[in-house]
Design goal:
0% of the residues lie in helices and 51% in strands. The protein has strands at residues 6-9, 19-24, 29-36, 47-52, 58-68, 74-80, 85-91, 100-106. InterPro entries: DUF736. It comes from Neorhizobium phenanthreniclasticum.
């Protein structure tokens, strides 16, 4: 099975989990690394998202934020501002591993 648009975390405690994954779009494939981010600011991301430069350097390309829906249930969003990519995270279809999260792209709202 080819798996695209996912993050495989190393723990189901997402607040402290590291992850690796892949984001594929019509014009690019980005291998990503996800690292927990600590901040006292209430609007700060919970994780930073990194990609590799052509010379192999980690480049900060975005973040993951923990939010709550209208019913108060928590969910996570991913944003890569440099390329205008926004997504939610959710359990990957067809499997029971909570550490494998699908990246579900959505368009920004005006």
């Amino acid at each position: 099975m080819t798996t695209t648009n996912f993050i495989q975390f190393d723990s189901d405690d997402f607040d402290v989990a590291n992850g690796k994954g892949l984001i594929s779009t019509i014009d690019r494939d980005i291998d990503i690394k996800v690292v927990p981010f600590a901040s006292e600011h209430p609007d700060a991301p919970t994780h930073r998202v990194y990609a590799r430069s052509p010379r192999g350097h980690d480049i900060d390309i975005g973040g993951i934020w923990k939010k709550k829906n209208a019913a108060g249930k928590p969910y996570r969003t991913l944003s890569l501002k440099r390329i205008g990519y926004n997504a939610n995270l959710g359990r990957f279809p067809g499997q029971d591993d909570p550490t494998l999260q699908a990246i579900i792209e959505w368009d920004p709202r005006d």
